[in-house]
C-alpha cells in the first residue's frame, strides 16, 4: 500500500515578519490553512509540522497536525534549506521504522493551498510519470527581455532576443512557493526537489500566488484571498 506524508516546515525564527507562521490571517493562524488543506485532501497517512518552537507546535496540534519530534538546531538556522528539513523528517521516520513512498512539503504561509489542488496535483504525477512536482505560475513578461544595470546604465540581459516577438519566445515559469511533491526514495538519494528525476508542474493562476516576505505582501495576500472567496478560479 502506497503511503504519503505531508510535511509542513515552520520554524520559530522568522525575521521580516516576527512569528509569521502563526500570525493571524483573516481570522486564524496562517499555518492552519496548510494543515486544513492537507487533512481535507485525505491523501496523507501523516500530516506533520516540523518546528523548533513550542508555541507553533501547540497551534499546529490544535488544528490537527502531529508533532512527532522537535526540529534539530542545524535544520532551524537561517541557512537550512527546505530540502534539509524534509530530509531530516524523512530520515527520522525511517529510523523509527516508518517509511513513505511520497512526501508533499507544504509551506506554512500558503493560504491559497486547498485539498482540491493537492488531489489534482498528485494525479498529475501519475499522468506524466513524474518523480516530483512543483507548483508554478507563468511569468507574465518574457524573462528573455529582462533588463539589467551595467556601469550605471540599463541594457538587455539577453540582447540576442531583442528582435524576437514576445509570442515567439519560450514560455517560462516561476516557483509559486506553495507545495512540492517528491518520491521519497529518489529525493533522499538526490537531495533536491528539482533534481529529483522528472519534475512535473502544477500551474496556478497569478491571482492565487503571492510571496509573503513582508507586511505589504501580507496585505496583498489577504486582499487576493478575499476576492478569490467570491469567485471560482479555473486552472490550466
UniProtKB/TrEMBL annotation:
<dbReference type="GO" id="GO:0008781">
    <property type="term" value="F:N-acylneuraminate cytidylyltransferase activity"/>
</dbReference>
<dbReference type="InterPro" id="IPR029044">
    <property type="entry name" value="Nucleotide-diphossugar_trans"/>
</dbReference>
<dbReference type="InterPro" id="IPR020039">
    <property type="entry name" value="PseF"/>
</dbReference>
<dbReference type="InterPro" id="IPR003329">
    <property type="entry name" value="Cytidylyl_trans"/>
</dbReference>
<keyword id="KW-0548">Nucleotidyltransferase</keyword>
<dbReference type="Pfam" id="PF02348">
    <property type="entry name" value="CTP_transf_3"/>
</dbReference>
<protein>
    <submittedName>
        <fullName>N-acylneuraminate cytidylyltransferase</fullName>
        <ecNumber>2.7.7.43</ecNumber>
    </submittedName>
</protein>
<dbReference type="InterPro" id="IPR050793">
    <property type="entry name" value="CMP-NeuNAc_synthase"/>
</dbReference>
<keyword id="KW-0808">Transferase</keyword>
